[in-house]
Write a structure and sequence with these properties.
Strand order of the largest sheet of chain B: 10-11-12-1-13-21-14
Structural class of chain B: alpha+beta
Mean pLDDT of chain B: 87
Distance between the termini of chain A: 30 Å
Low-confidence stretches of chain B: 1-21, 306-312
Shape of chain A: rod-shaped
Number of strands of chain B: 23
Helix content of chain B: 25-40%
Structural class of chain A: alpha+beta
Strand order of the largest sheet of chain A: 8-7-6-11-10-9
Radius of gyration of chain A: 58 Å
Distance between the termini of chain B: 32 Å
Shape of chain B: globular
Strand content of chain B: 15-25%
Radius of gyration of chain B: 24 Å
Number of strands of chain A: 18
Oligomer: heterodimer
Largest sheet of chain A: 6 strands, antiparallel
Number of helices of chain A: 13
Strand content of chain A: 15-25%
Number of helices of chain B: 13
């Protein structure tokens, strides 16, 4: 990844993290603030509802007092004070009184609980209701009462009033049914609704939870809240998720309603919709997202521009460095500023100039050293045959002066020796000549295994005739196929390696010629079981004129390396002292690969 | 002064004549009756007619029976002038009255009578022997004449329409709404006093009372409360003896001894006295037996406290829940039903209102049509869906044993014997429903204003 991209990512990352953190902090703080406001609103609405509820209770109490003070009840009370009163005449009185005062439930009872008239269950007339507390106490506020009906039971908001006429008082117990119509009649602020859970069974039953429209769908979601509220002295508030849409959420406050005696038969729930709050929060979130997203996009663009500006001199420096590595020692960069990067560019320019000068000096030194080495080698190589030549000529001169009768014989022997040494000189000179004049490869399609087999076949008789025979093993990969190469040059390179291997095994041994195929290259391996080379020898093995042999010129492996390099391949050596040496030549298979390797041909040989 | 004295004498004379005219039956006039029931059929064999008091009264106006019961419950000739049975009382021969004609002027024949009896009593083998009709019951049936007196055995000619030989003829029939009858001039027992009778059906007690107050009805039914109010307002109220049984009937026999015990607990828990005294304003009688005491003389023996049963508290009634149905459109029945629910709840038994659906327990009002106790018991058993008893003799001991067996079977719980209440205007006379609750429309007459 480029420095520019790294810079871009780093800057963008920092900005994004900062933006997200800031957004989260703002969002959290905002949410908490809104939650607090919403909670305050819910509590205010709940208080308003309680006020409305109390007002309804007061209204019922007033109506009951109106009934208690009516003439009908007064006459009834007087009649009931007489011995053996006939209560059957009051069968329908409670119903008509309840209708007149718009009450759903009304019962007129004596102080011992005997029902004189009942609106909701007329057949209770004359029945003694043992569920009433004795003595019956009037109430100054409304309470919840479970009303038994012929078809079940219902919940009412009731009050008790007393008619003190005659000797025995009459109690007027009445109220309104707490059902969906009662809830619908309540005046509630917008966004608020009331639920009522009629606790007529020991376990929670969803069917007993109603709102102003009837049974509440998914009522089971409120079961934990209702259970919490049913604990004495505890109001409970919960956030209820009615659906996956947060706008449907409601903050619901549950209150256990006051009961006539003992356990309350009802829980009142006041729900405040969170829709306005959620919509506002979503607007804020959307704005935050848009601003944040825009900021991030702008940051990326500006970061890209800034990173480009900052890294441009560095990129030019990197390109210049690559040029230098590629051999362009004259590369210079443009100094754009006088800051650290400018100083770096200046230093680079100065470095390349100095490197170029030093390289020229090094080349000159190497050239001189090469000439000296060449001269030394030539002197060494030529000195050996020249010394016998000198001795032979001096021997001829001495024989002509001292033994003229044997001169002819000496002359003949000496001329033969002279000719042999001269041939030797020619051979030495021709090797130097060959090394200086390596031909360019003539590309042909070469069958790899066939080439290796031919070379081995030519040399095998010589190895078998040796006093210490060498066993040759051919391990040819059938998938080797063909490559583009010069068959003569390759033949020569492999022959050189085979000769070296044979020379490394004067006591005989095993010589292995192996071919291997890969998808893009072919490998020749020539391994011997000779004495092996140490690491220093391995390093200097391909240096021209270096040899470990007594009569070697040190040019054989240099020629092999030259041939492999001309084929855009590479040669490596692995050797272990006492176990043998293994040369490995890897050649590209196709001309396309060879062409692809052209730019790096200078560094292909090892 | 003399002129004033003459005017006073004339006025007193006119008043005396008027009073004299009011006590003497006169022909003519229309009687307008308003009732709660709304029968949709006029066939006397249809249960809609035979099992309701109103249906029975309409049948008696349009159709005749072979036998009728007098005020003492003794069988008297009606369309039949004579009847005989063989020694085993399985084969009955009946001699028909001659000269009787249907309202289409066709004569009453043995074939028509046999056809009518076969229709209303498929279990009988009815044949014609000359002018006589032969009925073979297949078992000893000493009370056959009493059965022939039931309105379900009224003689009807069914030839697409339905025709009777009764004192009145149907002129307008709007099923469930209005029935108009006119008197037959050639009725074999003599023409009825009234010219016509208009019966408005399906009217609630309140609507009937309004119609009566607005002078749109001359005779109406009254609820117990309505009867008390009318009496208090010094209006004319007539009631029968308790001729209707209000009872609780279980749809199935008890499946176990435990269920029998729970049914007995329910029977013990019901406060019949309060039901009658408070809800019905003492207009009926708490019922211990199926038939009222005035009919049998032994009803008091069935009083719950005198029977051997398991008292409430000794039987586990928890988790006892029965479905319960009753006719909520009848205020008296609804009131009794709600009191039954209340008493049952106190006994730990829950009764759930099943509306009009088939229920475990029903509150049923059944008219007692026959004044002959064994026949009335058979009829009640049929009406209540109980096994119809078979009597071997005519003794009260057997009647008591059979009624006792019906009650202890825990299928039926008698509650109240209830009379019929009627509100009548002052112009309607001879409404003789006191004993058997029947209207006897052929005897009713109205004061007809002088032309």
């Amino acid at each position: 990844m480029s420095l520019r991209n790294k810079l871009l990512i780093s800057i963008s990352g920092i900005v994004v993290v900062s933006l997200v953190t800031a957004t989260l902090v703002i969002s959290t703080v905002t949410r908490h603030a809104f939650e607090r406001i919403n909670e305050d609103r819910t509590m205010a609405l709940t208080a308003q509802f309680h006020s409305e509820f109390s007002r309804r209770g007061d209204e019922i109490l007033q109506r009951l007092q109106s009934i208690a003070e009516s003439d009908r009840v007064a006459r009834m009370a007087v009649s009931m004070s007489r011995p053996q009163p006939d209560i059957s005449v009051y069968l329908n009185d409670a119903r008509s009184m309840a209708d007149g005062e718009r009450l759903d439930f009304l019962e007129i009872v004596t102080d011992n609980g005997t029902i004189v008239s009942s609106a909701q269950w007329p057949a209770k007339i004359g029945y003694r209701d043992t569920s009433l507390a004795s003595p019956i106490s009037t109430s100054s506020h409304a309470f919840l009462r479970r009303e038994d009906l012929p078809n079940g039971s219902a919940l009412s908001l009731s009050c008790i009033s007393k008619a003190n006429v005659g000797e025995k008082p009459l109690y007027i117990i009445g109220g309104r049914r707490l059902d969906q119509s009662f809830l619908a009649s309540l005046t509630l602020p917008p966004g608020m609704r009331a639920f009522l859970y009629v606790n007529l069974q020991p376990t929670f039953s969803p069917s007993f939870l109603i709102d102003s429209t009837g049974p509440v769908p998914h009522a089971e979601l409120l079961a934990p809240l209702i259970g919490e509220a049913q604990q004495p002295g505890r109001d409970a508030t919960r956030l209820v998720h009615w659906s996956n849409d947060a706008k449907d959420d409601e903050t619901i406050h549950a209150v256990l309603l006051p009961a006539e005696n003992g356990a309350s038969p009802g829980v009142l729930l006041v729900g405040a919709s969170r829709r306005p709050y959620v919509e506002l929060r979503q607007q804020i979130n959307l704005s935050g997202l848009l601003v944040g997203g825009g900021g991030i996009l702008l940051t990326i663009l500006l970061s890209g521009w800034a990173a480009g500006r900052v890294t441009r001199p560095l990129r030019e420096l990197a390109e210049a460095t690559e040029n230098v590595a590629g051999g362009d020692w004259q590369t210079q960069v443009w100094i754009r500023s006088d800051d650290e990067v400018g100083k770096l560019a200046d230093s680079f320019n100065r470095m390349t100039r100095e490197l170029s000068d030093q390289r020229q000096q090094l080349l000159q030194t190497e050239r001189v050293a090469a000439w000296r080495e060449l001269a030394r080698r030539l002197a060494h190589e030529l000195k050996n045959p020249l010394f016998p030549l000198q001795l032979t000529v001096e021997n001829m001169l001495r024989a002509r002066d001292q033994n003229p009768q044997q001169f002819d014989e000496v002359f003949r022997e000496s001329t033969q020796a002279l000719l042999a040494e001269i041939r030797n000189l020619k051979t030495i000179i021709s090797r130097f000549s060959d090394f200086s004049r390596m031909p360019q490869p003539v590309w042909q399609t070469v069958r790899v295994n066939e080439l290796a087999g031919n070379v081995v076949r030519l040399m095998q008789p010589q190895w078998q005739a040796s006093p210490s025979p060498i066993e040759c093993r051919l391990e040819l990969d059938e998938a080797a196929g063909t490559i583009s190469a010069d068959p003569d040059l390759l033949h020569r390179a492999i022959s050189n390696l085979l000769l070296n291997a044979a020379d490394a095994m004067p006591q005989g041994g095993v010589l292995t010629v192996r071919t291997q195929a890969t998808a893009e290259s072919v490998v020749f391996e020539i391994c011997d079981t000779g004495s092996g080379l140490n690491s220093e020898e391995c390093e200097r093995l391909f240096t021209p004129y270096y040899t470990s042999k007594i009569h070697g010129t040190g040019l054989g492996l240099a020629i092999v390396q030259s041939i492999v390099a001309d084929h855009h391949g590479r040669i490596t050596v692995q050797s272990t002292l006492g176990q043998g040496t293994c040369f490995r030549i890897e050649l590209p298979r196709s001309s396309a690969a060879i062409k692809a390797a052209e730019p790096r041909s200078s560094g292909a040989s090892a | 002064m003399k002129r004033i004295a003459l005017a006073l004498i004339a006025a007193i004379s006119l008043t005396a004549c008027s009073l004299h005219a009011a006590t003497r039956p006169s022909y003519g006039g229309t009687l307008r009756i308003s009732v709660q029931a709304a029968p949709t059929s006029l066939d006397p064999a249809d249960p809609i007619m035979s099992e309701t008091h109103t249906g029975q009264q309409i049948s008696r106006a349009v159709f005749d029976t072979l036998v009728r019961l007098d005020d003492k419950g003794v069988a008297q000739p009606d369309l039949a002038i004579r009847w005989e049975s063989d020694a085993e009382e399985q084969r009955w021969r009946i001699w028909l009255r001659g000269g009787v004609r249907f309202d289409d002027d066709s004569p009453l024949t043995a074939a028509v009578v046999a056809s009518s009896l076969r229709f209303s009593n498929p279990r009988w083998r009815v044949s014609v022997d000359g002018d006589q009709v032969v009925i073979e019951t297949g078992f000893a049936e000493p009370r056959l004449p009493y059965e022939l007196a039931l309105t379900q055995n009224s003689i009807a000619k069914r030839d697409g329409s339905i025709r009777g030989t009764g004192p009145f003829v149907v002129t307008e029939w709007n099923p469930g709404k209005v029935l108009t009858l006119i008197a037959r001039e050639n009725y074999w027992a003599g023409r009825a006093f009234l010219n016509s009778v208009v019966i408005t059906l399906g009217q609630s007690y309140r609507d009937q009372l309004l119609a009566f107050e607005l002078n749109k009805a001359d005779a109406i039914e009254l609820s117990p409360q309505g009867a008390n109010r009318a009496s208090a307002d010094r209006q004319r109220v007539e009631n029968s003896r308790p001729m209707m049984l209000i009872s609780l009937v279980f749809a199935q026999p008890p499946r176990s001894a435990d269920e029998t015990q729970r049914r007995i607990v329910l029977a013990h828990s019901l406060d019949r006295t309060s039901m009658n005294a408070v809800l019905l304003q003492s207009s009926g009688e708490p019922a211990a037996g199926l038939l009222p005491n005035w009919m049998t003389g032994y009803e008091f023996l069935f009083a719950p406290e005198s029977r051997n049963g398991v008292l409430q508290g000794r039987t586990d009634t928890s988790n006892t829940r029965w479905s319960f149905s009753y006719d909520a459109s009848d205020p008296a029945l609804r009131m009794i039903a709600e009191r039954v629910i209340l008493n049952a709840r106190d006994a730990g038994i829950a009764l759930d209102n099943a509306g009009n659906r088939r229920a475990d327990l029903r509150l049923v009002d059944a008219p007692i049509e026959s004044l002959q106790s064994e026949t009335a018991l058979q009829q009640l058993a049929q009406r209540l869906g109980l096994p119809i008893p078979v009597f071997q003799s005519n003794g009260p001991a057997e009647a008591y044993a059979i009624e006792n067996e019906l009650i202890t079977s825990a299928r039926v719980i008698p509650l109240i014997h209830f009379p019929y209440f009627y509100g009548l205007d002052k112009e309607t006379h001879n409404w003789d429903a006191v004993r058997d609750g029947n209207w006897h429309l052929e005897n009713v007459w109205r004061e007809v204003p002088a032309p």
